[in-house]
Design brief:
Elements: E1 8-13, E2 16-22, H1 35-38, H2 40-45, E3 54-56, E4 62-64, H3 67-84, E5 89-93, H4 101-114, E6 119-121, H5 128-138, E7 146-147, E8 154-158, H6 162-165, H7 175-184, E9 188-192, H8 198-202, E10 205-207, H9 214-227, H10 234-239, E11 241-242, H11 244-251, H12 256-263, H13 267-279, E12 283-287, H14 289-292, H15 297-310, E13 320-321, H16 366-371, E14 380-384, H17 388-391, H18 395-404, E15 407-412, E16 424-427, E17 436-437, E18 447-450, E19 452-453, H19 466-477, H20 486-502, H21 514-521, H22 526-537, H23 553-557, E20 563-567, E21 583-584, H24 588-591, H25 594-599, E22 611-614, H26 630-633, E23 641-643, H27 645-650, E24 658-662, E25 667-674, E26 682-684, H28 699-703, E27 718-719, E28 724-725, E29 730-736, H29 742-757
Parallel strand pairs: 5-6, 5-14, 8-9, 8-12, 9-10, 11-21, 14-15, 15-16, 22-26, 23-25
Antiparallel strand pairs: 1-2, 3-4, 3-16, 7-13, 17-19, 18-20, 22-29, 23-26, 24-25, 24-29, 27-28
Helix pairs in contact: 3-19, 4-19, 5-15, 9-11, 9-12, 9-13, 9-15, 12-13, 20-21, 20-22
The chain binds ligand MGD (2 copies) and molybdenum atom.
């Protein structure tokens, strides 16, 4: 469900889940659990969760159909469109794909079979700026340095609130415990955020920052390091690093005074932040959603690691380190220290000409690809575990566009704001009926671990494994019709991966016989077969006998609390996969964006003349999709607009009353919550709400609907290099609701009443 990968201890009575606890013996999470973990119980028994394929009728209602009927329909609609133009079928992959073993392995297979350039995912409303910066500097998108949380003495955290999010691109169960340990050993935590978050409250120091200005602040920190001769790379990094002089020149004009004028942090404070970062024995800077999903996401993400490098903290204990996942880590395979590097913009979007990134196009252009007529127009859409109508910018336009599609199919757990547009919805099995290994998240973990859980319950005869459904869709995409032989396709996938592996000379199975290896994997099929292959050929693996005692899936099966592979280790230069074999400190694509940053110095809204909107994550939300669980939505309404008292006065807004928030793309009416936990000139609305649209089937979510904040996000304003959406720092205007808008006042009053009559869940 999230990136913390906590081990859970489940108690069952027959098939019924009766209790959920944190697994105290888990090698990584040690018993930690959050409300979403407990909510698994309600998720399992949620009567609204889909258990059968649904077919949309002319009147917009859904009726249950058999899997064969569903696939016959999918094939009859998709195949002709694919035959005419493969790019006419778009695919959107949502966030849970990163959390599901089946999907991590088989959504890729479907993607390849579709062969469309219209591939979209939640990654372009999320972390691509960071992965792009990492790929350009270090060679691959999974060579992302993470804070060595358990050993650092100084953590500068920007745009992240792990006490609510449980950490991101920093897989770390119980971040609060780890941050408290940091402070207990004499370390310091500094948080930079336009809101005083729970994490900020735990910190030694918190600085408000004007949204979208982190790159200015970070550039100023770099400037101070150079100007005051505080750059300390050390010989090892110096020898493998290109581009320092370019960075010094770029940082030259970025004095603390220049940054202070836009970011709202005083120049002497900026100098002190730089001094402390440079002076700490082991220090690390870390940025997340607030530094990614903003106008200068790639620059800010890049500068975070420039700082880590210049202070000598890259790739050393207590600094920013490179994890080594047990399975699927591209920077642990092949030739150590050198690779092909990263290429972007290999193709462009049809309408706006936005560049490809990691094989995808920015989801901010999905709507226009559907609603703009012409050659190559998107006519059909497949969504897998995603709710883009709520999660992506200018939701209203996308919502409208989905209604215009010739055909749409969704593989999902609910009829929600997005899937209600689908002609066919295919259900996915529940969490207890699927096996699990965090293939993606262990690549970003603050400790190297591996943990596999088999399915807790036997398969539901009505709901095939998700990998099976993905392969059946692959069959359609490959022109094999609605009833392709899934076992044969799966066999083909396994063979393909084994063949690829034996061709890698450095692999422990390089040059081995493909059939011998496939036999060794038998009788496993599906994700287990692929995972076993990846583990055994991976950096800790048994190499199919070449390294006795090494990791196998069988070894993980006999370690139900996980296997600890130890603290992070220095990995440079071996982990590099740049073409030069060096750390590219000043990649051309990034350097080219500095001018855009400079130009923004004159931007009034950013300088504080206007009001800007940011988001906020909440402990009991998980993006848009867990609001149908009573345990997570009870208590006072949470979809409120945080407004600073000064702004409330300026715009005549009252606590608990409604306000209209307007941006270029739309307007919403939301209840106001006045709080000085938000910076003056900044308002905050959480994302993932707005569950009152017609045609959904989430009864609990509907009665706690909230408002979709992405009605306000502008699909035309992007982080230029990555094409990532700007979900933070959106210029808005505020007005109280007056006159005949009494209706909204009543809603706000009712929500306020609810807040006093129910006790919030405390865990
Ligand atoms: N304004 C604003 N917008 C944001 C953000 C923000 O900070 N501010 N954050 C962005 C980020 S970081 C992200 S990752 C995106 C998320 O964007 P999305 O991934 O599009 O949205 P989710 O709400 O995560 O939707 C998950 C979907 O998966 C379905 N699902 C759940 N379990 C399963 C399963 O086992 N199988 C299948 N097939 N489906 C399942 C759910 O029903 C739901 O439809 O939102 C982004 N949008
Ligand atoms: N409970 C819960 N956990 C989650 C999720 C969830 O929805 N609910 N979603 C999961 C997902 S998909 C992700 S990607 C992660 C995200 O994990 P985090 O990045 O830790 O998520 P947020 O809590 O949104 O923290 C982002 C912070 O950035 C701040 N911010 C906004 N704009 C700016 C800016 O311009 N500069 C700076 N410095 N800060 C800014 C916001 O105020 C906010 O506090 O969380 C994951 N975990
Ligand atoms: Mo995300």
């Amino acid at each position: 469900m999230c990136e913390a990968t906590c081990g859970l201890e489940l108690t069952l009575a027959g098939d019924e889940l009766v209790a959920v606890r944190g697994d105290r013996e888990d090698v990584f999470s040690r018993g930690f659990i959050c409300p979403k973990g407990y909510a698994l119980k309600e998720l399992e028994s949620d009567p609204d969760r889909l258990r059968t394929p649904l077919l949309r009728q002319r009147d917009g209602t859904f009726s249950a159909v058999s899997w064969d009927e569903a696939f016959a329909l999918i094939d009859s609609h998709l195949s002709p469109i694919l035959a005419a133009d493969r790019n006419a079928v778009a695919l959107y992959l949502g966030n849970p794909n990163a959390h599901l073993l089946d999907n991590m392995l088989y959504a890729r297979v479907l993607t390849r079979a579709l062969g469309t350039r219209n591939l979209y995912s939640a990654s372009t409303v999320d972390q691509f700026p960071k992965q792009m910066a990492s790929a350009l500097m270090f060679g691959t998108g999974t060579t992302v340095p993470v804070p060595d949380l358990d050993r650092t003495d100084h953590l500068l955290m920007l745009g992240a609130n792990p006490l609510h999010s449980n950490g991101s691109l920093m897989t770390a169960p119980d971040v609060r415990g780890r941050l408290r340990a940091l402070r207990a050993r004499g370390g310091k935590l500094v948080v930079v955020d336009p809101r005083r978050t729970r994490t900020a409250e735990e910190a030694d120091e918190h600085h408000f920052i004007r949204p979208g200005t982190d790159a200015h602040l970070l550039f100023a920190l770099v400037h101070v390091l150079f100007a005051e001769d505080l750059v300390r790379l050390g010989e090892r990094l110096q020898a493998i690093c290109d581009g320092i002089d370019v960075v010094r020149e770029l940082a030259e004009p970025s004095t603390p005074e220049v940054a202070a004028a836009v970011c709202g942090i005083e120049a002497p404070e900026i100098r002190r932040l730089a001094h402390e970062l440079a002076a700490a024995p082991r220090a690390v800077a870390y940025g997340r959603i607030g530094t990614c999903a903003q106008e200068f996401g790639t620059l800010a993400s890049w500068l975070v690691d420039v700082l880590n490098l210049l202070t000598g903290n890259l790739d050393r204990a207590g600094g920013a380190m490179f994890p080594m996942g047990a399975a699927g880590h591209s920077n642990a395979a092949g030739t150590p220290g050198r690779g092909r590097g990263a290429r972007f913009g290999r193709w462009r979007s049809r309408v706006r000409g936005l560049g490809e990134i990691f094989g995808e196009l920015p989801v901010a252009c999905l709507a226009e690809e559907i609603d703009t007529p012409g050659d190559g127009q998107v006519r059909a859409l497949i969504t897998i575990a995603g709710n883009p109508v709520v999660s992506t910018p200018n939701s209203e336009r996308l919502d409208r566009a989905l209604g215009d599609l010739e055909f749409m199919v969704s593989l999902d757990a609910y009829v929600n704001e997005t899937t209600r547009h689908a002609d066919v919805i295919l259900p996915a099995p529940s969490a207890l009926r699927r096996s699990h290994y965090d293939l993606a998240l262990y690549l970003f973990a603050v400790r190297n671990v591996a943990h596999y859980s088999p399915a807790v319950l036997p398969p539901d005869p009505e709901v095939p494994d998700e990998w099976v459904t993905l392969l059946r869709l692959t069959g359609v995409a490959s022109g094999l019709g609605p009833d392709a032989d899934v076992s044969a396709l799966d066999e083909g996938v396994a063979r393909f991966l084994v063949e690829r592996e034996v061709k890698i000379p450095e692999s422990p199975v390089g040059g081995r016989d493909v059939d011998v290896l496939l036999d060794a994997l038998a009788p496993r099929v599906g994700p287990e077969r692929l995972l076993d292959l990846m583990l055994r050929a991976g950096p800790y693996g048994d190499g199919f006998g070449a390294r006795p005692g090494g990791l196998t899936l069988a070894a993980l099966e006999s370690a139900p609390h996980g296997v600890d592979l130890g603290p992070l280790q220095p990995r440079l230069p071996d982990a590099l996969r740049t073409a030069s074999g060096k750390i590219e400190l000043a990649p051309a694509l990034i350097v080219a964006d500095v001018e855009r940053l400079r130009a923004s110095l004159g931007n009034g809204a950013r300088n504080g003349d206007g009001v800007v909107l940011v988001g906020r994550r909440q402990l009991r939300s998980n993006n848009s999709w867990m609001h149908n669980l009573p345990v997570l939505v009870k208590g006072k309404p949470r979809c409120t607009l945080h407004v600073h008292p000064d702004d409330a006065e300026r715009f005549a807004l009252a606590d608990g009353e409604a306000a209209v928030v307007r941006s270029r793309t739309g307007a919403v009416t939301v209840p106001v919550e006045i709080t000085d936990a938000v910076m003056p000139g900044v308002v905050s609305l959480p994302h993932g709400w707005g569950h009152d649209v017609p045609g959904t089937q989430q009864r609990v979510a509907r009665s706690h609907a909230g408002t979709n904040s992405n009605l306000l996000a502008d699909e035309l304003v992007l982080d230029k290099p990555s094409g990532n959406a700007v979900l933070n720092g959106i210029p808005v205007t505020l007005a109280p609701v007056r006159g005949n808008d009494a209706f909204f006042r009543r809603i706000a009053r009712e929500e306020r009443h609810a807040s006093t009559s129910e006790t919030p869940a405390s865990l």
